[in-house]
Amino acid sequence: MALRDVKPTRSELINIKRKIKLSERGYNILKMKRDGLILEFFKVLKEARDTRGEMLRKYQHAQEMIALANTVEGTIGVKAAAFSVKEQPQITLKSKNIMGVVVPQIEASKVRKSLVERGYGVLGTQAVIDETAEAYEELVEAIIESAEIETTMKRLLDEIDHTKRRVNALEFKVIPELKAAASFIKMRLDEMEREELFRLKKIKAKTAAKAAESA
User: Fold this and answer.
1) CA 144, CA 179: separation in Å to the nearest integer?
2) Largest Cα–Cα distance of the chain, in whole Å?
3) Can you give the pLDDT at residue 117?
4) Which residues, listed in sequence order, are joined to residue 92 by a DSSP beta bridge?
5) CA distance 118 to 102
6) Cβ atoms within 10 A of the Cβ of 140, count?
7) Are 34 and 163 in contact (CB under 8 A)?
8) What are phi and psi of 125, to 5 degrees?
């Protein structure tokens, strides 16, 4: 707001003071929202670290099991067991609200399967195939959980950044400019009032002088 564009009137001063109050109220609300989002972010960050660590552990375990299965059953036997699975995992994407931020809520079904649901013949395979299948089912669950948490973390981080920019704009630009405009108007009104008093005094003095001459 350029001061040269500000009208030095009492109505404008009242209007700017109202804007200052609204801006300060908005600043306080956004600041509380920012602080709340940061707290939520650190909670999710801790979950993300734990989940990522667990996912890596399960990935390593699954890799070890597939290597063992390939050794015991052979690559063809492992692929045959994998292709026998008829039902694929189902993902349902919902959403939830965290302090005004819409984040995903992923629900998965048919990830864990029984021996029958896996489709391969139980009698024709070694136990290592079952253990490998279970290891990969656990890995898929961990990946889904990690995807939900990390997407939530990213959206919270984006909202924190957006809120911080608005807080900074109000604190360092909007409110200072409004206060400067209010001070400028007050100063000009005071000057105009002094000028008016001086003018009235001059008129009074001239009137008194004329009255003295007439007498």
Assistant:
1) 51
2) 135
3) 75
4) 107
5) 36
6) 15
7) yes
8) -130, 160
Could you tell me the two tokens for 41? Answer: 């972010």
- Calpha distance 74→42 (Å, rounded): 46
Instruction: Indicate the pTM of the whole model.
Output: 0.75
Q: For residues 55 and 146, give the distance between their C-alpha atoms in angstroms, rounded to a whole number.
A: 7
State which amino acid sits at residue 184. Answer: F
Q: In the numeric block, which tokens belong to residue 214? A: 């007439």
For residue 13, how many C-alpha atoms fall within 13 Å in the half-sphere facing its CB? Answer: 12
- The span from the CA of 24 to the CA of 173, in Å, is 12
- Rounded to 5°, angle at Cα 161 from 160 and 166: 95
Please enumerate in sequence order all residues whose Cβ is within 8 A of that of 192, keeping only pairs 6 or more positions apart, or say none.
Answer: 8
Per residue in 161-185, pLDDT (tens digit) is: 999 999 999 999 999 999 999 999 9
Q: Which residues of 44-69 are buried (b: 16+ CB within 10 A; e: fewer)?
A: beebbeebeebbeebbebbeebbeeb
Distances (CA, A) of 54 to 8, 105, 171, 181: 65, 19, 42, 57
Nearest-CA neighbor of 36 among 210, 164, 202? Answer: 164
CA distance 32 to 28: 6
Query: Is the distance from CB of 100 to CB of 33 less than 8 angstroms?
Result: yes
Q: At which residue do the structure tokens 């920012």 appear?
A: 34
Q: How confident is the model at residue 76 (pLDDT cuts 50, 70, 90)?
A: confident
